[in-house]
Design goal:
Length: 223
């Protein structure tokens, strides 16, 4: 008899829980969610908050989750991922980063691409990690980052419908000649909505993540 796997998920906002629960709802896995919006707010708004303090906070969070008898840990916040220093962790629990399967998908594309963001504080860390990933895997990407201005505060205030509407509108206006993707988990519903309405493919980090985790943890479908 197979023992059900258990994965701890670290989020920067409560809204991410529903996305992950929905994505894995058909698989035999137990999800435990840990949410800390405070760190993202400090990193985004407090210029006096030092990098070393943010990195220590992420390290402490991950090690705390690792002590709760999980088989794996998932980090859904790209800002937290940029702060993570895996080599400093004193644990052997597998850690899944939501952007790595996403980067893999992007690096397979040879056409010009655009990545959309709503959180300006996430752009630098994500793009640096993408270019590092491409360099390590000897890939060349023709890519630009675009910020949808004045939208991220909507999701942080709980105005999810208005947030999805604004992201959807921005996606519909994108250059048809470029491959488009969204970098943040909160943008996935808008990307899926635009795909349904326009039949235009919008790459998102959730779809790539699920297939990667299912394969690596050898998850089975629920009966």
């Amino acid at each position: 008899m197979n023992v059900k796997k258990r994965m701890g998920c670290l989020h920067a906002h409560y809204s991410n829980i529903d996305y992950i629960e929905g994505a894995f709802s058909s698989y035999d896995i137990e999800l435990s969610h840990f949410v800390d919006p405070g760190l993202l707010q400090r990193v985004t708004n407090d210029e006096s908050f030092p990098d070393w303090a943010a990195e220590k906070k992420v390290k402490d969070q991950i090690e705390w989750i690792g002590q709760t008898e999980v088989d794996a840990i998932l980090i859904t916040c790209t800002n937290y991922i940029a702060l993570l220093k895996k080599e400093q962790l004193s644990m052997n629990v597998p850690i899944f980063l939501i952007d790595e399967p996403y980067f893999e998908a992007i690096c397979r594309i040879q056409r010009p691409q655009t990545i959309l963001f709503t959180n300006p504080a996430t752009v630098s860390g994500t793009m640096n990690r993408l270019h590092e990933y491409a360099h390590i895997h000897q890939k060349t990407v023709d890519i630009e980052a675009v910020i949808i201005e004045n939208t991220f505060d909507l999701i942080m205030r709980g105005q999810k419908e208005e947030y999805i509407k604004q992201v959807s509108n921005a996606l519909k206006k994108m250059n048809e000649q470029r491959v488009v993707s969204v970098a943040q988990l909160s943008m996935v519903p808008a990307a899926q909505e635009v795909e349904r309405q326009t039949s235009k493919k919008v790459i998102n980090p959730l779809d790539t993540l699920v297939s990667s985790i299912v394969g690596q943890l050898v998850l089975s479908k629920k009966e």
